[in-house]
Every structure is written in structure tokens, then in C-alpha cells.
Amino acid sequence: MSRKLPLAEGQAARTATARVLLRGGVDEKTGEALTARTVAERVGWAADLVAGMAADLLAEHWNAGDVARLAAGVDEAGRVLPSNAWMALRRLGWDVTAGDGIKVNDRIVRMAQEQAGRTLRGARHRAEMAAGILATWPADPAERTEAEWDAVREAVPDGRCLPGSVIKARTRQIAAFCDERGRLPVDVFELEEAPRVARMLVLAAVDRQQATLERADDESARVLLRLQLPTRPDPRSYADWTWVACPLTLPPTVPADAVLHLPTLRPATGPGGGRVHADLAFSHAVPKVERKGHTTALGVDWGLNTLLSAGPCRLHADGTIRALGAGAMFRAAGVMARQHRLRRHGEHLHAKTDT
Known about the structure:
alpha+beta; five-stranded antiparallel beta sheet; 8 helices; globular
């Protein structure tokens, strides 16, 4: 289906995501009806292949030089790198294979490169923050002086807006490394190993040769997702890949005229295994935001006992402002209490292991 959203004058495009559950499918080669657990198993096999290749890419390029090279945004010829991560990695010559005897098509490799490329691009901020903290390492890591706080906030990206807890957490991590090795790390790539790769299929990186998405009709909430999946965990030839058609039902939050994009598939693990969630992106038209002329506003305030309190109001033609409804509030006391308990529990366990 077309990914272009037609817009009228005074409209803008908005992209959102809806989570949909894959409830089964049909193997188009054999005509066999597949249960949700069977589809989840096949999606999991494909996700394992992608995750393995993405992990190899991260392990190979998890260093300051390659991350800086990717973050520079240009290749060796000075050309601007594409915005798609998989295309940028191919322009730089960073390729990967599935392993001996494993047969995957080029689109599977694309998904691995896309996932690894996004992670490597995100590592730039992590590297710059660690570099800023190391360059302004305090005399006492447990208690910075006011001057040391000013120095580190100037050194790290967006330091003036960054919560102090983020800087403290990174400082504790570096201090633990220093206690173990007797020296400061060179950079974040010595401080941390390459991140673990999530089991998922980023179908946005592929084309119609790997996956398609079509509505049943313009007004229907039914959608058909077709994609190639392996019939065994270690496909040895292209014959071990078949097209699987998976019907999806869109939630009511997706407008009937929205343009749908290929989703990201996430096979569930653990006790909730046997299911696949599809994070389905969609674009729809909304009125453009104007600087003036608004008659409805939302006021939001934060506090200690109630994290957020909000209430809408409307400006009437006679100049009066009236509240709409009773408003709403968000309390995070339970979540914060659980977070504090888990933190104390973790500190207690670390203290026991250290002794």
C-alpha cells in the first residue's frame, strides 16, 4: 500500500503507533493454517537470525572510532550518509553474514544492519557523556562540589538540562570500574560491553520482497500482513523460507483513512511466550498547529504528592474562561516506592557479593 499521506491545505501529518497481536496465519506454500504459537515460533527463528547478525555487527564496531565515523554523517568520499541506518552501514562497508550453512535473503541482513546501526548511532550520546564526566573527574566521586557540578554540566551534552541523577549514575559506574581496575576507563567502550540485541524484526527496513501490508478495504479494520518466515531455526536454502499471511485487526484508535506502515514484530519470551506483538506505525492527517487563534488550552502543574495535575479550559467569545470537566491527575507514589525498594534491594545484594 502507498505510504504517502494525502494532505489538504491546513493539515499536517502525525505518526503514531498501535500494538496489535498476531493471532495466527496461513502458510501460502502449503495452505496450512498456522496457530498463533506456530507463527510466534517462526517469527522467533527469524528474530534470532537477525539478532545474531546484529550482535556480530555491534561487537565488531563497538569502539570510539567507528561510532564517531558513523556519527559524522559522511562517508569516505564526503557524501552525506542516508538516514536509514542499514543504508548508512552499507555505504561505510559494514557488512555481516548469517554464518556457515545458514541461508538468508538480503532483506534479513537489512534488518540486522538497521538494528545495529540505530544502536551505534545512539551510542554517540553515551560516549560524549562519559567523556565529559571523565574530563571533569571530581576529587571525591561520592560528593561533587558546586564548582565540580558546574564543570561537569558544561562538559556533557545538554548538561544544564540533564537530571543530576543521570550524571551520578554514570559516575558510580565509572567509580566501580576504577575500584576494580585501579584506573579510570579510556572511554565508554572500555567501560561497557556492546549492548544486548533485542529479538525483533524491524520490517520498516525491508521492501515488498520480504513483507507487505494491505487493508481489506478502505473502511475496514482488517489488515493482512504477509512476510517471509523460515520453516526451521537454521534454514539451509531459500526453500526453507515461505510466505505467511497473518490477518490483523486494527484497534479503534487507528483512523480509517490512516496510512499504515510495516510494523516491528516482537516475539514474546518467558511465561508469556507463544505470542507476537506487532508495533504498527500509522500516519494520519491533523490540523496544523497555529501560533494564535486557540480557544482551548490545557494547564499542567507538578507537585510532590501528585506528580502531575491537569485541567482543560476554553476561551469564550465574551472573553470569559471556563474549565471543562474536573481535570485529571497522575500519581506515581506506588511506582516510585517500588523503584526505591528495588534499588535498595540491588544495593544490598551488591554489598553481599562484595563481601
